[in-house]
Structure formats: structure tokens, C-alpha cells
Write a structure and sequence with these properties.
This is ECF transporter S component. With about 190 residues, the chain is mostly helical. The chain is about 75% helix and about 0% strand. It has a single domain, classed as Arp2/3 complex 21 kDa subunit ARPC3.
């Protein structure tokens, strides 16, 4: 779990073997991951209380799709957005700029970099950017009454530190789930 270790070779080898899958299988898997992400994201609205603990796991299907193929992760991300528009439109602000963007950001980090440190930083930067856009551009109270709509370096620094720790957690969880689900997908 060291932050400075390199990313496992398994991810790269799985990408190579995943490219050998038929296009239909890749499209079906990407669509399935998008449906799971939309279902997990809407859990907070359909199951008040416990659903708010389930909702952050909407990052996982997008992250897994991005680990197998960055193109499939991005496709799943963009497919989840219209599904959320149909099923639960109030989640349309949260998913594209937080949980979904984090999954794509970490997946892109795995695609372009070999060190976990770089992957975690890319994920943290995308999540921080998404939260800042929600807070300061759209004035959406994503953090509740904790943060105001006026920019503060203390708030921005706190968001960056939280995003770094959260991204680190998701990198480790992504690798763990990737190793568990790889035999079922390949």
C-alpha cells in the first residue's frame, strides 16, 4: 500500500488481453458498468440514510471500466449521465463533476503513468477541480453549509487534501476490485 510503488503489471497485461475481446463484448460491458454506476449514484435518493453511504461507490464501475480500457471508462461515464437524467435528475450535478470524474481521472492516471503517486495526484486534481466548479461556478452546495460560495484558500486547501486522501483510497480499492473481477471479465 506504499504510495510510491509502481502500478502493477497486471493492469497493463489485462488491457492487452481486453483489446482481444470482441467489440460487442466491450460495448455490453461498458453499458453494464454505466447501469451499475447510475444505480449506485441514485441510491442516496431512493434509500435515504444508508443510500448516502452506497452512493460514493458509483466511482467503482467507471474506474474498473477505465482500468480495462480508457475508452470504455469514458464511454461508461458519458452513458451514465443520460441514465441519471432519466432516473434521478437531481444527481446530474454530482456525478459528472465528482464521483464519475474521479473514476475517469484515476483511470486516465493508470493509463498514462506508472507510479501510484502520479495516479493519485491526477485523481485528486480532477476531483478538486470538479468540487471547485460545483462550489464556485454553479454555486451548488456540494459540501453543505461547510463551504461558502466565496473563494477561500483554506477551503480550497482542505478540498485538495480531502481529494488526495479520497483518491488514494480509490486507487487502492480499484486495484483490489480489479484483481477480483479480472477473471470474470477476461
Amino acid at each position: 500500500m506504499c504510495i510510491f510503488r509502481s502500478v502493477t503489471e497486471e493492469v497493463r497485461l489485462a488491457r492487452i488481453s481486453f483489446r482481444k475481446q470482441t467489440r460487442v463484448k466491450r460495448l455490453v460491458l461498458g453499458s453494464f458498468l454505466a447501469c451499475i454506476a447510475a444505480t449506485l449514484q441514485t441510491a442516496g435518493g431512493f434509500l435515504p440514510g444508508i443510500g448516502y453511504f452506497i452512493s460514493p461507490f458509483a466511482t467503482l464501475p467507471i474506474l474498473l471500466g477505465s482500468l480495462f480500457s480508457l475508452q470504455m471508462g469514458i464511454m461508461s461515464y458519458f452513458l451514465t449521465i443520460p441514465l441519471l437524467l432519466i432516473v434521478f435528475p437531481s444527481e446530474l450535478f454530482i456525478f459528472p463533476l465528482t464521483t464519475g470524474l474521479l473514476g475517469v481521472g484515476i483511470g486516465a492516471g493508470f493509463y498514462f503513468f506508472k507510479k501510484r503517486w502520479s495516479v493519485i495526484c491526477i485523481g485528486a486534481l480532477t476531483l478538486t477541480l470538479g468540487i471547485m466548479i460545483l462550489l464556485y461556478v454553479f454555486h451548488f452546495p456540494v459540501l453543505g453549509p461547510v463551504a461558502s460560495h466565496s473563494f477561500s484558500f483554506l477551503t480550497a486547501g482542505s478540498i485538495l487534501i480531502f481529494s488526495f486522501l479520497y483518491s488514494w483510497l480509490w486507487v487502492e480499492l480499484g486495484i483490489l476490485f480489479f484483481k477480483k473481477f479480472k477473471p470474470f471479465i477476461l
